[in-house]
Amino acid sequence: MSRRDQLGQIFRFALVGGVNTGTFFGIYLLLHPWMPYFAAYSLAFVLAMVGSFFMNTYFTYRTRPTWKKFLLFPLTNVTNYVIQSAGLYALVTWSGMDTRIAPLVAAIVAIPFTFLLSRKILVPGAARAPEPEHAHDGPSRV
Questions:
Q1: Among candidates 95, 111, 91, which has minimal Cα distance to 16?
Q2: Tell me, what's the pLDDT at 70?
Q3: CA distance 132 to 117
Q4: Chain-centre distance of CA 29, in angstroms?
Q5: CB contact at 8 A, 12 and 37
Q6: Closest Cα to residue 74, out of 32, 36, 121?
Q7: Nearest by Cα to 58 from 69, 71, 74
Q8: Could you tell me how many helices (H) and strands (E) the chain has, helices first?
Q9: How does pLDDT run across 59-107, given as a tens digit for each residue?
Q10: How much is the pLDDT for 131?
Q11: What mean pLDDT is predicted for residues 112-122?
């Protein structure tokens, strides 16, 4: 994959992330008056994750969604969920941040982790390092 293709993926991921974050935050704000903030956060997170899966497969990584990827995708978001949940708890409990704003701040912190993990799941072979151009020219020098 060329550097240009990688930058394209990062740009599309950021765009999808923006849409997904807006979707998550909108759902959260709609649910927040009707349930405790953490329950609203959790439900909004799950609903936005389903949307994120489809936006990332079709748009970001331009790959075909499969049931296997769909079932594995939440595993990549476990790290995201833990980072965001811990951040949400810390921001609300320890720093007194408004419960309407804290989920957005926590989500921003988790972005780099989410990109790397979702790419690993959604793009076959993305976890493997590319071979150097002259990999078959003999032993490499250190």
A1: 111
A2: 92
A3: 23
A4: 20
A5: no
A6: 121
A7: 69
A8: 4, 0
A9: 999 999 999 999 998 887 788 888 889 999 999 999 999 999 999 899 8
A10: 43
A11: 83
Distance CA(20)–CA(53), nearest Å, equals 10
CA separation for the pair 119, 21 (Å, rounded):
18
Closest by Cα among 37, 56, 46 to 78 = 46
Q: Is the pLDDT of residue 130 over 70?
A: no
The token pair that represents 105 in the structure block: 């701040």
- The tokens describing 8, both together, are 């394209």
* Residue 110 contacts residue 84 (beta carbons within 8 Å): yes
Residue given tokens 């923006």 in the structure block: 18
CA distance 29 to 33: 7
CA distances from residue 41 to 82, 121, 131, 136 in whole angstroms, order as listed: 12, 24, 42, 51
